[in-house]
Design goal:
Elements (H helix, E strand, L loop, with lengths): L1 H27 L47 H4 L11 E2 L22 E2 H7 L29 E10 L8 H22 L5 E3 L2 H10 L3 H12 L3 E3 L14 H19 L6 E4 L8 H8 L4 E4 L4 H9 L4 E5 L10 E5 L15 H4 L28 H16 L6 E9 L5 H19 L6 E5 L2 H11 L7 E3 L21 H21 L10 H15 L11 H29 L15 E3 L14 E2 L7 E7 L6 E9 L4 E5 L4 E2 L1 E10 L8 E17 L4 E8 L9 E3 L1 E5 L16 E3 L4 E4 L6 E4 L5 E5 L7 E10 L21 E2 L8 E5 L3 E7 L3 E8 L5 E7 L7 E9 L6 E6 L3 E6 L11 E3 L2 E5 L3 E7 L3 E4 L5 E9 L18 E11 L12 E2 L3 H11 L3 E5 L10 E2 L10 E8 L8 E7 L14 E4 H4 L11 E4 L9 E2 L3 E4 L4 E6 L1
């Protein structure tokens, strides 16, 4: 009996064990394609800038994961995309999509993550202890028994070369002098050595080289290397983008430009891993974009050295990077953080750079580079291989124990590496000797090989499911590479070029949108113009471009490209507008003609001399102007044009009078003795201001009619001008019907009407207080300009990258009364003051909810000066404030007293706000800048910086090429009494609808076009009246033609933001987005079908069966219309 019981129990145990084993293997063992490929071969210090969730990936219909069609043959399925329905179309009913059946954003629920970076920053001591050979870490130890013959250490040596498309040299110079040689040698050495691998990131370089290849034989070699997985593209973007100053629209543009080229050239649409080794800090917007582009993995490098140490101590350098709002983990992207100081060879093989440098065989004696630690590499021979192998295996092991798996990534490269054939040979031959010895030495328990980034990630995923790694929310700003050297200066450096970037971004988006509404002949050349503009914007997103951290002449080179891009975008805009607004029977185009002048009020500087002045009178009695609205909702806003005469009447296309206002034009000039600037009024130019409206994604036509006197147009009013000055001066306004009033300097206030915001100003014309409307309480908002100097101690000073102030900011005293000009009108009221370093203007407009601030900054006469604008209030925000990430989301920040001032500075690409239970104050900016809320109730934002010296990060110069720059801001004051108070642990904030719409006015204002001819035959009244208006919050990020798919294909990327929960706001959850109705397409029109796509719009995926598409707050979706 006892024996039977024992057998019975044993049987139960065996059954339970095998059931457990089955479920364990089922949940943890990936497919065979992810297994480690056991392929064993047979045979300058980087000075630059030193110092539980599954992925949901939509499978394309024409699956090309194996890149089988690289050699140029036409894919029959691909070629038929434009001719007939896709074979075996998958129908995607959007309403039943599992991922979207419920939203992952719930403002009432604090999202959970294993690591929240704001909490991490609170925990880290920032003590900067000396860690020994790993200066910023500790002495790593390991147990040699954790590896054995069944569980070997898998070492992936990944050759790479980081090529900046502009920094010390221009893109063209780098290509001709270095990058071209890298590719030529790559082609030879990879072709001759099948076990050699290479990864490449910057498609801007690769496309230029590949397109220049003269023979099909060379191109076929490249395709074979890709197919054999010897050459791997990582990220696939046009450049490796900055993540602080760049807007996410432009980041997506850069990624798309590179990936579309790869798709067209090699039929590659399956890049799964991103590589970002050089951006100066990392934004959580990046994993979100990558996730929506179909990525599974990403790699980052430049994070604060204390953050690296903190995560390394916990084996959390690999994590699932999750979005701040995500309550379900559907946005997770597996992320690898490199642990050490830099991405060069001395800092990638292990913790001891002195040892690792000896395995950078580019530094062999006579090769032109040396090791700073005075111990050079030696060639690997039979005599020394055992000792050398032991040295490097020790480093590999030490690095590996910082991570959770037995796979370790060892990048082998640096800036502009592998330019010479001898480097390719030296690295390959010497490492192959090490591999052969190590892989055949049983005591090591190591498998090492040349590999690609994807091979490493596949190995990690084979060993552990991603749900075994922690989830992380937050970002990695502000970056410090050593000591208190925080890289917060580049948030502002070269604001003139940063402003050009935003202007181009908006014009390109508008040009692509208008161009896509109708079909065009290929001979127009418009696609080429748009391509140039896309590539100009994309290359400037490089992390030494929009950051303002390149040589003076390199910045000028970027500027030339962007200026050409703006011109090309404008040309396409005006051609498209003429076609859309001209009757088809009248439309006979000249594709080289300029039908409209675009009234560009978005200049980077304050100089308005390039703007058109509309001349109408007896000979030309009227002019047509056009307004374009790029948003998905009807907009009513005040617009401005310059006219030559003050008597103008505005009518809409139906002849109805439109309220208008005429204001004298004046500019500021310094006197002969360089005193404070004085206003000079024009007698040949006046400002015409009127209320305009335009439908969603539409156009409206207005007519400006010349009159001879004031009484002929009752709908036009005239501003009253008052000048505060100690010394009156003569003013000639010619025909202007209102007289100028002079007064002694005094406090004053402005308000358009009872329902609009009001503002009061001191006698200098500088803001003192704000109110929402005439019935709301007045809130003190004191504006002042201040300056930071640069410290002298510790042998390090501020430069293009670093912000190292000499202490708190000092107020810039106003030592004499400046001249103040006040303009009061029914549609606009403004106050302007001329200071020694800035022309400061504050503007209120009818129908607006913000005070607009314009600072024309000129600090060319200063030295080692960083100018800020500070707003001081009684808002009790304590040490909490919110800044945006790349224009997409607002992240919570906290001032940390244990971190120096410069470490509490953050990038402000578009906005910052502070709040308490009663009041919120938001500041939106037209230019990406740096700023903070260093003290309760304060917002400060830097305006410009001029620095005489290099900050020893490789640039080799200061920042002294300053240009006068116009920084435009919107200041929005809002009551919080009707708004839901979020949990104190909620990691982000949301704008209200009001604030959001004001920000859109700043970033995407109306485009204003002036018809260049006297009469316009066949003019239509408008375009877009059949576009169904969407709620504010829906954004058309991209609307463009997709010639790589078919001639008439249109790509759309749609984003839905989330609004704060106030009594007047929408919850944003579960709302529908109807593409056909928004675009004014007939719902029964079968010629247009909608397909889902990734946000890079490479190819159609599932067909969308339901035209009403659910979009939750913060969703991004890509669509292709065919």
């Amino acid at each position: 009996m006892i024996r039977i019981k024992k057998k019975f129990l044993l049987a139960i145990f065996v059954v339970v064990f095998f059931v457990y084993l089955y479920f364990y293997l089922y949940s943890n063992v990936p497919s065979n394609s992810e297994k480690f490929i056991d392929t064993v071969p047979k045979t300058i210090p980087n000075y630059k800038k030193y110092s539980n969730v599954h992925d949901v990936v939509e499978k394309p219909l024409d699956d090309i994961n194996d890149n089988d069609n690289l050699l140029g043959e036409e894919d029959p399925e691909q070629s038929n995309l434009g001719k007939k329905d896709l074979i075996n179309d998958q129908i995607l009913p959007e309403n039943n999509n599992d991922v979207e059946s419920s939203c992952n954003l719930d403002i009432d629920t604090v999202p959970n993550s294993d690591i929240q970076m704001l909490n991490v920053y609170n925990e880290i001591p920032f003590d900067n202890l000396d860690g020994g050979v790993w200066k910023q870490g500790w002495n790593i130890e390991y147990d040699i028994h954790q590896w054995n013959r069944n569980h070997k250490l898998k070492v992936f040596i990944v050759p790479h070369s980081h090529n900046d498309p502009g920094w010390i040299n221009t893109f063209d110079e780098y290509y001709e002098r270095q990058t071209k040689q890298i590719f030529s040698n790559m082609l030879r050495h990879l072709d001759e050595n099948e076990n050699m691998k290479f990864i490449w990131a910057e498609i801007v370089y690769f496309s230029r080289w590949y397109d220049s290849l003269m023979t099909s034989e060379s191109k076929d070699k490249v395709k074979r290397l890709i197919k054999n997985k010897q050459l791997e593209f990582v990220t696939g973007g046009w450049v490796m983008t900055d993540e602080a100053a760049s807007h996410w629209y432009s980041i997506l543009q850069s990624l798309t430009e590179g990936q579309v080229w790869l798709k067209k050239t090699f039929n590659i649409s399956n890049i799964k891993s991103s590589w970002a080794i050089d951006p100066f800090g990392h934004s959580s917007v990046m994993p979100y974009i990558f996730k929506e582009a179909g990525f599974e993995n990403m790699l980052i490098q430049r994070t604060h050295y204390s953050v690296k140490k903190y995560l390394a101590q916990r084996k959390e350098l690999e994590f699932r990077w999750r979005q701040l709002w995500d309550t379900k983990g559907t946005t997770d992207l597996f992320t690898h953080m490199m642990p050490f100081y830099s991405y060069d060879v001395p800092h990638t093989c292990g913790p001891d750079p002195k040892i690792c440098c000896q395995f950078d065989f580019k530094r062999l004696p006579g090769y032109g580079l040396s090791c700073p630690w005075k111990v050079p590499p030696v060639p690997i021979t039979d005599d020394n291989v055992a000792k050398r192998a032991e040295m490097i295996v020790d480093q590999w092991r030490k690095k590996s124990v910082l991570y959770k798996t037995r796979s370790v990534l060892i990048p082998l490269g640096d800036d502009f590496r592998y330019t010479q054939s001898m480097e390719w040979e030296a690295q390959r031959v010497n490492f192959e000797k090490i591999f052969e010895y190590v892989n055949n030495e049983p005591s090591f328990n190591v498998e090492a090989k040349f590999a690609t980034l994807q091979e490493y990630f596949d190995s990690v995923r084979h060993e552990k499911g991603t749900n075994q790694f922690p989830s992380l929310t937050g970002d990695f700003f502000t970056y410090a590479d050593r000591d208190d050297h925080y890289w917060s200066g580049y948030f502002t450096s070269r604001p003139f070029y940063k402003r050009i970037d935003r202007i181009l971004m908006n014009y390109l988006r508008t040009a692509e949108m208008l161009h896509s509404w109708t079909s065009w002949e290929k001979s127009t050349g418009f696609e080429k113009r748009l391509e140039q503009a896309r590539r100009a914007l994309s290359i400037f997103q490089h992390h030494d471009g929009v950051t303002g951290t390149a040589k003076d002449y390199v910045m000028a080179d970027y500027n030339e490209m962007m200026t050409d891009g703006i011109k090309n975008s404008k040309f396409v805009i005006q051609q498209a507008v003429y076609k859309l607004l001209t009757e088809s029977n009248i439309y006979h185009p000249d594709y080289s003609f300029t039908y409209f002048n675009i009234d560009d009020s978005r200049t980077a500087a304050s100089d308005d001399s390039s703007r058109s002045v509309i001349i109408i009178g007896d000979e030309i009695p009227y002019k047509y102007v056009v307004i374009h609205n790029s948003q998905t909702y009807l907009r009513n806003e005040v617009v401005e044009f310059f006219v030559a005469k003050p008597f103008v009447c505005v009518t809409d296309a139906d002849g109805n009078s439109v309220d208008a206002q005429i204001t004298p034009f004046f500019s500021w000039h310094k006197g002969i003795y360089q005193g404070l600037p004085q206003p000079q009024f024009s007698t040949t130019k006046y400002r015409l201001i009127f209320s305009a409206s335009a439908p969603a994604l539409g156009l409206s036509v207005y007519k400006l009619n010349a009159k001879n006197k004031r009484d002929e147009c009752p709908s036009t009013t005239y501003s009253k001008i008052t000048i505060f000055t100690d010394n009156q001066f003569a003013i000639n306004l010619d025909e202007y019907p209102e007289k100028v009033t002079f007064a002694e300097p005094k406090e004053t206030s402005l308000r358009i009407n009872e329902n609009s915001p009001g503002a009061s100003f001191n006698k200098y014309g500088i803001l003192k207080s704000l109110s929402q409307d005439s019935k709301s309480p007045v809130v003190p908002v004191h504006l002042e300009f201040m300056r930071y100097g640069t410290r002298m101690a510790h042998g390090q000073r501020s430069g293009a990258y670093l912000f190292l102030p000499d202490g708190p900011a000092q107020k810039l005293e106003i030592k004499e009364n400046p001249t103040v000009v006040i303009s009061n009108g029914q549609l606009e009221a403004s106050i302007s003051t001329g200071l020694s370093f800035v022309i400061h203007e504050s503007i209120l407009r009818s129908g607006g909810d913000a005070l607009e601030i314009r600072n024309s900054v000129d600090i060319r006469e200063t030295s080692n000066t960083e100018i800020i604008m500070r707003l001081s209030t009684n808002i009790k925000n304590e040490n909490v404030f919110f800044t945006d990430l790349n224009g997409m989301q607002y992240i919570k920040r906290k001032i940390l007293k244990k971190v120096p001032l410069q470490g509490n500075y953050y990038p402000i690409p578009t906005g910052i706000f502070i709040e308490d239970d009663l009041i919120r104050l938001s500041l939106f900016t037209s230019t990406p800048l740096g700023g903070s809320s260093l003290n309760p109730g304060e917002i400060e934002i830097m305006q410009d910086r001029r620095l005489n010296q290099d900050d020893e990060r490789g640039l080799g110069q200061g920042v002294t090429d300053n240009k006068p720059v116009l920084n435009i801001f919107k200041l929005v004051l809002e009551s919080r009494e009707s708004c839901k108070k979020n949990d104190e642990q909620y990691p982000m904030g949301f704008l209200t609808t009001t604030a959001y719409m004001e920000q859109k006015k700043l970033l995407h204002p109306f485009e204003k076009l002036i018809y260049s001819e006297n009469d316009w035959n066949g003019v239509k009244h408008s375009f877009g009246n059949d576009h169904e208006e969407q709620e504010p919050g829906f954004e058309i990020v991209v609307m463009r033609t997709l010639p790589h798919i078919q001639a008439n294909a249109i790509g759309l990327v749609v984003h839905r933001t989330n609004f704060d929960k106030c009594s007047v706001e929408s919850s944003m959850n579960g709302n529908q987005f109807n593409i056909k109705r928004l675009l004014g397409l007939d719902e029964n029109e079968e010629s247009r079908e909608i397909y889902r796509s990734t946000v890079t719009l490479l190819e159609p995926h599932q067909k969308v069966s339901d035209e009403s598409i659910p979009m939750c707050g913060m969703d991004i979706k890509g669509f292709i219309l065919k």
